[in-house]
Model the fold of this input.
Amino acid sequence: MSRALTDVLLAVLATAVAVGWAVLAPQPKPLDAWGVLLAVAACAPLAVRRRRPVVVLVVHMAVSVPYHALDYPHDALVVPGLLVVYTVASVMRRPHSLLVGTGAVVVVLVIRAVDDGRVRFDTLTTLGWMVAAVGVGEAVRSRRAYLAEIVDRAERAERTREEEALRRVTEERLRIARDLHDLLAHSITLIHVQAGVAAHLLAESADRLNRTVMVRSLDTITEACLRARAELRATLAVLRDSTMTEHPDEDRRPVPALSRLSDLTAPVTAVGVTVDLVSTGDSRPLPPAVEVAAYRIVQEALTNVVKHAVATRARVELAYLPDALVVTVTDDGRGGAGTAGGYGFVGMVERARSVGGTLTAGSARDGGFRVMAELPTGEHG
Done:
């Protein structure tokens, strides 16, 4: 049932109560046609009490004055009057509702005092009921406001949770994209280079075929495929929260760490690029996030050396500072060959930023290309 219909029915019920009360207790003067008309006019505005509370109060008081002045049964309009005062207090804000309620009480007091010539006990009783109606209306309004605030907070909290969930999903998608790019791009690049070497050897005449180089190239391809498959399965296992029970004896590589950089340098050396791995400072275990970021940056930098640099030598330097790790990868290839616009470079920058670090890339001072990342370790500060 709608509020409008409820108010209409309430107005009809209040009218019936007022008229019935006046008929059953016709003191000091029984109702006549004018009395019934005034009683109905005093109750009818209750049909719009929630939409126009002040108007309803003004109309009710304006009609009540002649009603009481003509000495029709005074108590008959008590119930409609209490409903009007309650509505004003429950709908309007506190200062306004208290002001209007006080005004209504004063008007009733004046009317009854003028009518009776003095303030009687039943007049004070009526005033007490009106004050109670104001109090109940104020309590109802306060509770409605409290519940509305709770609902609003809950809705805002829900929106915040949804926004946070969306942010986490976006970050996770970026992380997955970086991981898949890093582990696949490196292996696929090595496979591409070695497959090219094998194809070149096969294209030569049989008497000039270098079987040793052919075998080494194919072994490198095989190792790169196995490594890519193992890392891909490990990444998918994390995404699927799987225990990998289908193949319990399969190689499950640990989280990438700097202690395993030889896994990156060996395949690059196999394709003809000599890699020098240098460490300076106090070598020590670092936070896992920093280790992973540094490992992936080196991986992508070496991948770019193989793909773009046309280099014969690369240098990977890890400088352990008291509160940071500086990773530098340089090569002796073409200085402008390192792409700074692809997904690989963006991924390196994002990985450095993920641990609060920075990354720069560009032509090296002595030729070639250089990638340098400074990654805070958070151990001092």
User: Anything to note?
Assistant: Residues 3-119 form one domain. The chain has ten helices and five strands. Residues 242-253 have pLDDT under 50 and may be disordered.
